[in-house]
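ugh ok fine here u go
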Amino acid sequence: MSKAAKKKDPKITETLYQMIRSPMITEKATMGSQYSQVSFRVPLTADKSIIKDAVEAVFKVKVVKVNTSTNKGKMKVFKGRQAQRSDTKKAIVTLAEGQTIDVATGV
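structure:
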């Protein structure tokens, strides 16, 4: 059995929508658009294969590569009280040549 026969077309489910929390609209993230890269905020539990399936199913594009980065939350002091910021995870998705995602519009 070939790899193409094993790979199923993922159906759009609520869990796939939950894997992509929001696009990152920063200067650094928009610089990646010249390399066909789009950045998203994702849950800490998401792994690369799930993120790839979610982006391909929701946006109907071909994903070449997914890089992830986890940022640990900082300790901050506000009015004499210490608090811990939440950990965050971002995914940098590289699309196939000629593929684009317009992150300015909604899904």
